[in-house]
Amino acid sequence: MHAWRVMMMMPRSKKQRQLFYLVPYGAWLLLFVIVPLCLLVVQSLMTQNGHFTLNNYAIYFSSGTYLRMTFNSVWFAFLITIITLIISYPTAYFLNQLKQKQFWLLLIILPTWINLLLKTYAFIGLLSKTGSVNTFLNLWGIAPKQLLFSDWSFLLVAAYIEIPFMILPIFNSLAEINPRLEQASRDLGANKWQTLRYVTVPLSMTGVKAGIQAVFIPSLSLFMITRLIGGNRVITLGTAIEEHFLVTQNWHLGSTIGVILIIAMVITMSITRDRVRKHSRKRG
């Protein structure tokens, strides 16, 4: 009876149904995206006494420390993206050739269901001086080494965590390619590598761009992995935001850095957006 009443209350026309579903989505977007962004911008433009100021931005752009953190954030995000792309594209291409490709893709996605903190601590157990890696090396007479708190260990863990988010969009874009196009390329005399270079890769660039967005943007603001794996050697803007909000309690400067990160993310999305699809829609 209750279900019947709910069905009777549902709007019947198409516009009413669209409005019915748009209201909760719009409310969620307003409360958890637009309002927090506005608060962040307002905080960045205020002093501790609540007066308007641009001094927070002046401090940021005049500080060599913050500019160095910005460079580190972009550089590490770039390296993580390149590493994941180099690993993910061949993996996604190989998975698409398998008969049970959905099953193997599921195995790759499964680690994303595990909490990020748990995966990070698992790597601490592997890379610590008393961890599994040093225990194995000790069997060969190699003295234990400190494998944590270095740039390469941070890149290793971050790349491992981000790889599924790069593989999935590339896999989907490769799966959407019409096999007849590759067959036609070979019929015209192209070998396997020429087909891959001139047909497969260009047609899968949509997935590559989506993967770059999914990896580069979150990598800009990493802070937990930098703390636990990189230690004090890897300092990024995400770490600075954590410090200002939780340690120094300077929320205004922390908000300023947050706004800078959001601008960097918007620039990244505008650079990697799918222009080809946009132009094709205009022509259609």
Describe this structure in words.
With 284 residues, this protein is mainly α. The chain has a single domain, classed as MetI-like (MetI-like fold). The protein is built from 15 helices and no strands. The longest helix is centred in the first third of the chain and has 33 residues. It is globular, with a radius of gyration of 24 Å. The chain starts with a helix and ends with a helix. The C terminus is likely disordered.
Which features would summarize this protein structure in a list?
284 residues, mainly alpha, MetI-like fold, 15 helices, disordered C terminus
CATH class, anyone? Answer: Mainly Alpha
CATH-derived topology: MetI-like fold
Beta strand count: 0
The figure for the number of domains is: 1
Tell me the name of the CATH homologous superfamily: MetI-like
Short structural description:
It contains 15 helices and no strands.
Q: How would you summarize the topology of this molecule?
A:
Elements: H1 2-9, H2 14-44, H3 55-62, H4 64-96, H5 101-109, H6 116-127, H7 132-139, H8 151-175, H9 179-187, H10 192-203, H11 205-220, H12 224-230, H13 237-247, H14 251-271, H15 275-283
Helix pairs in contact: 2-14, 3-14, 4-8, 4-11, 6-12, 8-11, 8-12, 9-10, 11-14, 13-14
